[in-house]
## 1
Amino acid sequence: MINLETPKKFKPLVSQAHQVATEVLRPISRKYDAEEHAYPKELDMLAAVIEGVNEGGELGGAGAGGVRRDSENGGDEGNRNGSNMATVLSIIEMCWGDVGLLLSLPNQGLGNSAIASVANEEQLELYGGKWAAMAITEPEAGSDSAAIRTTAELDGDEYVLNGEKIFVTSGDRADLIVVWASLDRSKGRAAIKSFIVERDNPGLKLDRLEHKLGIRASDTANFILQDCRVPKEALLGSPEIDTKRGFGGVMQTFDNTRPLVGAMAVGVTRAALEETQRLLTEAGVELDDDAPAFSQSAAAARFLEMEADYEAARLLTLQAAWMADNGKPNSLQASMAKAKAGRTCVDVTLGCVELCGSVGYGENELLEKWARDAKILDLFEGTQQIQLLIVARQLLGKTSAELR
Amino acid sequence: MNENGTKVSAGDRGMGIALRSLNRLAGSTLLDRVGIRKPFERMIFSTTKGGFRSATAAARTFKAAQTLGKPARQRSGKTRDLFDLSPDDEQQMFQEAVRDFAAEKVRPAAGDADAKRAVPGELLDQANELGINMLGVPAELEGVMEEQSAAAGVLIAEALAHGDMGIAYAALSPGAVATAIGRWGTADQESTYLPAFTGEDTPAAALAVLEPAALFNPFELATKARRDGGDWVIDGTKSLLARAQDCELFVVAAEAEGIGPALFVIESGGDGLAIEDEPAMGLRPAATGRLVLDGARVPAGALMAEGEPGAYAECVQRSRIAWCALAVGTSQAVLDYVIPYVNERTAFGEPISNRQAVAFAVSNIKIESDAMRLVTYRAASRADQGKDFGHQAALARRLSAAKGMQIGSDGVQLLGGHGFVKEHPVERWYRDLRAAGVMEGALLV
């Protein structure tokens, strides 16, 4: 039965997340935007609370649950609303609070996602409960992650990693870094594996922390790996180089994390729309759902257009999560959600600043900050263009060699 | 030879002289001075088209088969607990039947119906047999659905429009009138008119809201209904009605004296009613026309829902959802058509779909049409659960006006010059998709 409302059973979760966003994140949002690289210590308390509430489950950050396709999602008559949807809903609320702070939540990194997705029992035992960041991008390999140059050579019982990693979210703060490296660069993407590196490994050297346009509360680290030795057991997934399966496991993580980035974008977009609606109302603009857009003021018409795009992005994101909960392949929908939500977030937050004039542009309000934060959401976890490529390849039945 | 070296025939010269004298008249200030320029221009237009205002069709005798003590109504559905994108069994059954019909019957007939501005009667009968005009008829009056289902209406409209939007409009228009009467009609109106919609020989009928005015707002109607004795007298013009010439029954929106915008049931054939042909850019199979009400007199009992303003607002909102559903269906048709085309068409030695500029346009058609579908479904499903849905309908309408049209445009663009010619249907979809943001009323879910 077609129903696109938020399920009743998740209302308490959404409400909790909204409380956290309102009471904890919003009040410190401007502070950590201004003090880039300062550690948001308020989040330690929050992380403890979240773990207390659901043991690192649904209420949390990008690396929370929702990456294993478990069968305990609950529901009736074959329809499930499970952990994927719960995670998306709570991320929307948290990012309504502050997306940079959400990305800085301890123990909720992308690396946690990778570990939760592909780690075996022993690895879960060993690394569970720790904060894990993800290191994929290199100076010469961004969207083209198959081109990464970092190598991993087996030496006795250890792998030796060498290379350079950039744009590692929470890299300096995390306990672990999941590093993507190639076992054999002549074998292409099939040889790319992920390795868990302890942050205090002497072969892992922090090069610098980036100064950024937005999400300044979230640290972005660059590392040099120099003869960085890790135990054999640090390799996630299978050490076999299966050229038929290609990326397999490592890329699989992204099908699950893209809707989460979509959710982040949806949350930021809603924050900007709500604030703009308040300011427009103060300015005497009336929004009328029944009157045609063009018989209202230009500001009202523009607002309606932005809200329509927001709703479109939000429902595409929920669709991707719903499909994951119901065991339906959702790689296409995940990319569609990420593409639409990412570009909508940028368009809407910038449009809101424009509508609100100097109030929107100035630092007294958060609108300008959201417009800066927005841009990363159309970049990381696959840029807009990469998402459009993924969607197009699936629709047109193209390989990555045909449609490049 | 004229200045360009073109040889001019005697016949052409004759036409040239006529045009010259017309032009001289048009250029003179005489017309402006006596204030007849507009009527004159319209007269020229209409006489060149060949006589264009006519009486409305003769209506059958609508007779009550039973008397109802109070209006029969479909009940609204229960509140759903879980997020779900799957239609229920009944909806799915309808959807599949209409999908097959659209693919096998509607699409093949679309080009011809567009050119002739007419849908074969047989095709309309077959559509009617699927039950699409009875969705809003309460079960007491032999309707097919116990519960109201805007979602079913959306799925059906979407599936039909995948075949052709203009044929879908023609086929669904009577159902809009039946649904309006089933939802907001008095007991008398229901028992008088609804039996005609549950039988085989369904009358052509139109829900007339739109008016010929730039920036038309359905809540500020130029059509006025004034009280006269126990009657209502209505003046105004309604635009783009499907099969206007054949309509036997109208539900007309008018600003009612002392009430505000309201709906009236009006049978065709009466004094003060006339039809003007109104061919448009698209929706051509629906043979669109205007209804001109010039002192049309109807009894007090023609007013629907006792003029309750909520009913009229709901009617406008439900219409918008219906047009969004058509836009979704036609957008999907564009997507399904361009995918094989761009894969097969080669340029510079390879399929054009190997180019990002082409491939990304296809991605965006998919993204925006899926999003538009979800937003439309949400509005419909809220309506079915008895929740407010005006806001969601407004959002869906915005998307169908903006993204639907973009999809129509991209569909033509992706075929290049081939998209511009009638060998391919994309130029028709381009014309039809413009309607979704323009139409008000006319259809209901």
## 2
Amino acid sequence: MEDSFISHWHDFGRAFLDGATKPSLPALLGTLGVAISIFLLFVTLLTPDFLATKGYGYFFDGPTDNYAYLTSETLRISKTAKSPQKNIVLMGASNIKEAVHAKHLEQLLQDKTKQPIKVYNLTAGGLFLWEEICLLDKIRNRFRGIVVLQITPTRRLALDRDHLSKGGITRHSRLAMYCPKFDEEMHIAGVSKPQWIGNYFLDFYKFFVVRLPALLKNVVTGPVQWSPQQAHKWRPPTQKQWERSVNHLVKWQKTYHENRDTNFEVYRRLIRYLREDGIETAFLEAIRNPAAEDLIFAKPEVVKIYQEYKSDVIKFAQEMQIPYWDLAKFANFKSEDFIDTVHLKKDKARHRYTAVLATRITDMLSTQ
Amino acid sequence: MKKVARLLGITLQAIVLGTLLFVAVGQLVALKTDARIFFYQAF
């Protein structure tokens, strides 16, 4: 009796293994059927809402996939933020991402104002102004409060139009979301608008297909948590990399005069657009390693153009009636607080800077 | 019973290979269209 039971299961297991491992026409047809079904599931079920809710974190290719985070987080805010409440958006590139601790800022603001203020962290390494427009366009219907917008000559005011068409903005779908204001700015800049067909997966297929292996892994291991501070894990730059980085911080002066007016116009349109929905903007100047500043400002012509930049920003901020904060001097940064020319690595320095920023935001909130 | 077992085996094979096929085609599309994830490098 027992032998027959074992033999029965033995036959069952052998037949199962045969079916699972041997090539056959039904298996081939099944394989194609499954692949096509998954494709159809993506086409029909993958929506911005899904990415903002149940799909949050599944498309992140690790905790440093900043643009998958930005996409999901922005969509989440646009779906879930409570509009009557005043909140804060922290927006900018890696400089501000590494310099401000968003959770600590939130805690400080709640303590100071005794209000349930939320701080949304929409920062990513290499983020362009036009991408910021896209993110803000997406959240403006649900968000009320202050946008703390990083400002800097590099990648912002000195950036030329070529970056829009040649760079990653239009070619690579770094962000997977529809933003009419972004398309409008592209049109103003003379870059042809993307042709949307209206299907989320197909319109942003580059964003999704490149993350399929990560999705497969995340389905097994669970959604990924984004890591806002990443610089402490970087290797310190070599002398050559350091010099290249310093040169990069000086290079903007060549394109500043040519591009500042057009880029100030972009900011002007953005600030007015946000104001229509009761969203106020504050400019936050980027920070620099004091050791790099000594090298950057070694040449008088760089000092001259930087002073011109500062005066331009101050004038523009006054015209738009927005604050311009250059807070580095209040945080007493030392060279060893930085991993390189512009990125903070030490938590203590980050907390000092965040505290200074919290004070400024609280002052701004109290006048509103 | 054997038929059911074989069918279950084929189903498992189809799910695994179908998923891998979808991911592989996706990777091919990514390669052909120069799609990539932007990971920030400071220097």
